[in-house]
Automatic annotation (TrEMBL):
Protein name: cytochrome-c oxidase
Keywords of this entry: Electron transport, Membrane, Respiratory chain, Translocase, Transmembrane, Transmembrane helix, Transport
Domain Cytochrome oxidase subunit II copper A binding residue range list: 162-340
Organism: Muriicola marianensis
Keyword Ligase appears in the UniProt entry: no
Amino acid sequence: MTTLLTILVLILVAIAIWQMTKIFELSQIRAENTQVASDKDNKYNGYLMFAFLIFIYGITIFSFWKYTKVLLPEAASEHGGDYDDLMLWSFVIIFFVQTVTQALLHYFGYKYKGEKGKKALFYADNDRLEFIWTIIPVIVLAGLILWGLYTWTNIMDVNDEDDPLIVELYAQQFNWTARYGGADNVLGGANVRMIDIDRANVLGLDESDPYAGDDVIVKELHLPVGRKVNFRFRSQDVLHSAYMPHFRAQMNCVPGMITEFSFTPTITTEEMRLNPDVVDKVKRTNAIRAERAANGEPNSDPWEFDYVLLCNKICGKSHYNMQMKIIVETEEEYNAWMESQQTFSQLMASMN
Ligand SMILES: [Cu+2]
């Protein structure tokens, strides 16, 4: 009821203001027709064009200053550098063109503002000008596209050279599971129809497949630094997307098919924790968390940096929290960790 009354009062106030404006306008009748902009109005608008330009540049500089620090730290994969270079140069070119054309647009808006008896300079037709503003974008865009295609082909080339580690990432609402090929580095066959939750066969591995026995199923992804990893992605239910931002990697997980992506991690978790950008981010986050702790709010434990696998497709109500920790470590640490894991056949035996 109160809400209804408030809305009613607001509507009445709005009507009152509208009516008063009309009365005010009627009382201001002048000899000249006020609907046509005068030289003074045009001059005023010309200066406003400049004011708006300053506003745009100002907000751009402010955003750079305030938000650059929330960007990702340096890429932790071999191809990540190429990806970042392409991204950086695309932005530099777009930014340069935007800055120049915006300034010209506003300058000419001011220069040729309406004035009695004044006419703007114009060409009805100019072949040379048209040639220039066509050929420059053509060359620049063709260059960007070719470079992009070259980079894309390199990054998306999944092959078996250099003895890659084979890892399956399995997506389901709302968590990730990883599977290693075990000692033989070959994944056993699997199908969602063979999933048997009661017997802990959560990924639907084919128990009769000799390759499946030594597979290792885990809830935390460990990767040895410097070794190429070939990922195979599966989804149990809907579209998910495996997103590993620090490695500049993303691949859709599609029910009923296997998708692939390959990358080589180059920086261990320990090393990344010492990266100045990461140190700074941890410091900022923990300052906020300390404040929360002081107020007795949840999510206030000190945070430590870890690589993370996220879902980047809105796949349902807990999508936001569909993640898995990734640990990049030395070969020895990785081997020791792998030693301590149960194989699929050990797991099955313990269930019987
Ligand atoms: Cu998802």
